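Here is one chain, start to finish.
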Amino acid sequence: MRKRAIAGIVLCVAFCSGAMAQVLGKIDYLEGRVDVTRNGERLKKVDIGMPIENLDLIQTSADGVVSIAFEKASGLTGSLQVVHGSTALIRQDLLSGSPTNEVKLMAGSVNLKVKRLAGMKKAINVRTPSSVLGVRGTEFVVASFNGSSIVACKEGEVFCASYSEITQTRSTDSGASAVPGTMVELLESGSVNTGAFPKGNFEDNWKAMQDKWKTYNVELITADPVNFMNQFVGNWTEYSSKVESGTAALRSNAVLKKWLDEARAGKTGGGMGEFVREGPSVMKDLVAIRPNMVIAMISWYRLQELIPLVPQGAMGKKLANGQTVRAFIAQFNKSSASMASSVALFTAAEKQYMLRNDGVSPFIDF
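Its structure:
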């Protein structure tokens, strides 16, 4: 946490809703099932016109699509579309007094048509497990699957750099621009490839290219599912149990419980003196769980992609940990609900901390 937050040297307006935009956009189109998780809880009703707040987690089912029109308070104009079978987190941070917007795509695909408002240094970043995309104003699409990403631009330019989710760092020596006619692929290994994007109807061509790319990756997985699963089974087993312990600490944190109760009541909390007293307690538990959460989440989302692709003929095979594929999948499915709850609580805790700390995350120095 920054020294000025501990010392209380901030303006009182830092505790007003204007310090960091809570509402970043509103749903302007919806079909199928769409879930939104906020303040640690899945909202009971999601509909057109509903506001989307900072650090909302959006999940679409196989038939779900949602479009979000950015609000002026976000510093952006345009929209974000989260297509079927996708999971994305929308966030805004205040860094050096300037808001930065980000869409974190955990799985699936998003479409953006976005421009920055006057005074904003950049429009938005999109982050996937293997890439970070710098956008100043453009219309583009990005898909993530099997640890890799592809990006295509209908208008403008997006600079695509390789990124490590584990170290939370981007490569400084590899990257390429996606522009009309040129698409970019970013592999989990850090390699960045470019290729021609067909002329003609952009949406139809994107669907065809995405389907071809995903089919190739699916064929790799189904040819040797045990090998792919073994890359994540060990980390999932080790780090999901550590996340459970860290989640227990967060749930028992009296300050966080008070903050979440205030959020449900529509309150933000008290002034700086109160935050100086309460903040370190929540920060301590967040910092403790974060490294385990990052690794567990990577394994969790990757296994969710892999497991539906495992053929019945592979269910009896043994994994590196000695379990059969069938036994591991049953155990994984049983523990997924607990992991989802942990992710929701972790995100809610970070959000409540940021609301009380001038929009600054407890992880700013990490």
